[in-house]
Amino acid sequence: MKRPSLPVNTPQVDCFPPETRTQRRRLRACHECDWVSALPPLNSGEKATCPRCSHVLVKRHRYPAQRSMALALASLVALIVAVSFPFVSFSVSGVGNRIDLSQTATTLIAFHQPVVAIAVMMTIIVLPAVYLVSVVWLQFGLLQSRPMPFSRDIARSLAHLNPWMMADVFIIGALVSLIKVAGMAQIELGISFWAFCLFAILLLMTVQSIDADWMWFSLEGEPLAPEGTLTGTTAASQHVTGCPTCGLINRIQHGKERCVRCHEKLHKRLPHSLQRTWALLFAASIMYIPANLYPIMTTTSLGSSTPSTIVGGVVQLIQMGSWPVAAVIFIASVIVPVGKLVALAWLCLMIKRSNELNAQSRTRLYRLTEFIGRWSMVDVFVVAILVALIRAGSLMSITPGPAALAFGAVVVLTMLAAMTFDPRLIWDTHTPRPLRRKAATKEPVDG
Description:
The chain is α+β, with helices and mostly antiparallel strands. About 50% of the residues lie in helices and about 15% in strands.
């Protein structure tokens, strides 16, 4: 297949993928099952998946530097607009209030909830802004064929920032909040609201556009895999491991090595993975009790105060006839946290009983628990928005309850529990039959 013609002045770093710039096979160790395979040549729009567990090893995009840089710049513009104009306003009986985006976090400080305020501000504004600026910094250097200072450290931080950016979750929380208030007051959406919706979409597209394999190859090249590394077997059996950040296979000897390309810490398996996961699950279970027993917010209407727990809020929405919103809150605030606790505990208990057949399904369960964990923050964002917006004194106001901090802790602890669990342990209880010279499976990227 003939490659499309490219502009003469297009930097080489963004013209040809690594497979066309090296004459040797590029090996990868799967982060989820530890299987060593060789990356096949990939065209734009294709991805390579692990032949053992189907984990995506590499996604290839056309013009990845231009693509991600353009999306990151557009996202930053949308974010600037979102923080510069009114977000939403309400009025009832001639009394109203108007807030901007940052007030959804800062208002919580006045109610002695600084930890929740910091969490909201970091996840919806600060960390996304840092991520986008980092992407622009990296891709600008690559497009000039001269990486900018600190590019390696910045590139390493991108993967660590990704799980904690929750602009899309905040949008769902905003919609739930507005539906709750719509029956009691008149709502008006500001320019900031629509700009933030656009920002959330562009941020998601930016994250998906990052071609980490291409980026690391362009930044630091790709050193040879350790001599004698074989495909078709596990990395641990060969005393090597794949870097969780840049993917490069490194030799492990003393257990304290760092990746020769990105300097990330390397381990054959995450140290004390099960112990740390159990500890975090236990802490999350303890915090889940006050998160449900205490009110998450208190609503004052005409001088009468009504505390509301998480489940009580779901019941109230059902009584108002908002079944879809009640379902969203119930799933995000009850089913997802409990489901994550149960799923991770079950995975930890069943580690030693795993085999080749059920390892596939257990790995899929792990992926699901890791993906859905952040969506439990919907209820925390709902509280933040309503507390900032509904401030009309004794006529109507909402204050945060102690459950907000407890429930936020549950979300963070369960996310950390999923991160500390090493899915490669699921595959370690049996010795697979070696498959010689096995390459990763090449597939088109969905969408």
